[in-house]
Amino acid sequence: MAAEFIKLYEQNPDERKIKHIVDLLKNGAVIIYPTDTIYGLGCDLSNRKAIDKLCWVKGIKPGKINLSFICEDMSHISDYVRNLSTPTFKLMKKNLPGPFTFILPANSNVPKIVNANKKTVGIRIPNHQIPLSIVNHLGNPLITTSIKEDDIVEYPTDPEEIYEAFKNLVDVVIDGGFGKNIPSTIIDCTVEPAVILREGLGELIH
C-alpha cells in the first residue's frame, strides 16, 4: 500500500493531522518529514518493529545505525545521555533549537533501543515546528536519519519527488514545502573542547 502524502505548514501545523501521524508512529510507521535542514527518515524510538523497518528502508543492520534522536527540548536529553558536562550543556543551550547534531555519551537506555552496544547518541532539536509538534504529541523522541547516505552531494528537496521515490517503502511522507540540501553540523561532545565533525548548516555559537 502506498504511503500517505500529508501536507503540513511549518508555522501552524494542523493538529488533527499531527495526531493522525502520531497514531501511525505508535503503530510502527516509518515517516519522512521536513526539518530545518534536509528531509529526515524517522520512527518512534519505543517501537522495535519500526526501528527494524527504518533500518530496512535505509539498507543497514539495526546494530549499525548511527543513532540520532529528535527531541522537543533539553529536558528529554538526560533520558539518553550520561555525564553531560556544564560546558556541553551551555554550548547546546546557546545553539538549540537549530541545525546541529550533538554527539554525546549514551547512557544505558540507548543500547536497549536498538539491541546494540552503542556508546554515543546524536541529539537534534530542529528549529522547525513540524517535527517538534510530532515529538510533543508522541511524548518521546523520534529516531532520525537522513533519507540518503551522508556522503552524497545532493539531498532530495522536493517532497513530491521524495514521495515518488519512497511511497512503497515508508508509511507517510509529509509535504512541508521544499527542504534544504545542506545537512546539520555535527559536533562531537564526547571530547573537550567539542570538535566539529561535519560542517553543515548553521554557525556554532561558542
From TrEMBL:
GO terms for molecular function: double-stranded RNA binding. Pfam families: Sua5_yciO_yrdC. SUPFAM superfamilies: YrdC/RibB (SSF55821). Residues 15-202 form the YrdC-like domain. PROSITE patterns: YRDC. PANTHER family: DHBP SYNTHASE RIBB-LIKE ALPHA/BETA DOMAIN-CONTAINING PROTEIN, THREONYLCARBAMOYL-AMP SYNTHASE. This is Threonylcarbamoyl-AMP synthase. It comes from Marivirga aurantiaca. The lineage of its organism: Bacteria, Pseudomonadati, Bacteroidota, Cytophagia, Cytophagales.
